[in-house]
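Re-run with default settings, no changes from the original entry. Doing this only to confirm the output is reproducible before filing.
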Amino acid sequence: LSRPVYHVQQSGVVVVKIWVDQYGKVTKAVPGADGTTVTNSALWSAARKAALETGFNMSASAPPLQEGTITYIFNLK
């Protein structure tokens, strides 16, 4: 599993609020939810992009939209 490399000298947590449709596609992602510990725009942008690329299982019986969060932890290397 390869992980992206970010050239930001800051570590912390970005919590992204997401909305997922019945097909398992993230339709909206908003970083900065409760639990976020950094305000760095590059990390927020990276977390939002990663959330929008995340897929979930499809379910015809699921509500049209479900809300949740994804937590991204950025560490310095």
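Helices lie at 41-52. The radius of gyration is 13 Å.
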